[in-house]
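Thread: zinc ion complex, take 2
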Amino acid sequence: MGIYKAEAIVLRSRKLNEADNLITLFSREHGKIHAVAKGVRKPKSRKRGGVQLFTHGKFLLYAGKSLDHITQCESKNSFAKLVGDLELFAHASYLAEIVDGLLAENEPQEEVYLLLLTSLHLLEHHNPELLARAFEVRLANLLGYSPQLTECVHCGKTMPVKQIKFSAALGGVLCPACWGQDSFASRCSLGTLGALQQLQRMDLRRLGVLKLTPEIRREMEKILRLFLSYRLEKRLKALDFLQMISEARDGYTTGSLAATKDDVFLEQGKEAKSWNEDAANEVAERQDTLGRNVTAEN
Ligand SMILES: [Zn+2]
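Output below.
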């Protein structure tokens, strides 16, 4: 392919060596691409701003024998608000990691690309939790495995019925007669079923009109995460990150846990050592990005 252009979002950035990073791009034209950004770890690198996490921009790449190289990049939007806020950052990381985990390399998925781009924009203004749920449902739809919500996934009985469970393994709701099909199926209230159905079809810009109880939010989160983890066949690192933030946030009210953003990251770094090395590096990269941005803002 030689030299080629791409409009893309930075999904992931990892240290390759002292000077270079390995970047995972999600491009509109070519799908997911792994490419080396030479010299970006040097403070004076001109490319540096263009390859930060979540940056949306235009890229000029060179197809090498084993890996592609980013030769030029021009940032259109760096989503500074997402990088500067711990909770938004964690949610944006989660969206990027699902896309990275579910999509194969070099397979263009323009609708998924537009969903991610829209979601990053909306994340700056909407409830991040609800947006993540909507993203999960819509992504599953686009990838061809939308959860079955209108009839029992086993016998075909039309929903809603009085009591419903959701089977992540079977990919849809079960009527009481079919609960035996999956002993791990989780509770799904009528409110949760209705909310999931709405997320499948509503305009994402109107998410703010959905008023959901904490119970419905919790049920939706559990159902969709299990559902997606079946398709991903691995645990997402960003989930640990989100979990830690919510624990730290709860701790903030009782005063027992780290309260400031810096402390949370310090805790995060410590925790990371007990994960595998890859996860630890990833956390360090996130920490690095966030730290850099916070410094730049001050
Ligand atoms: Zn049934």
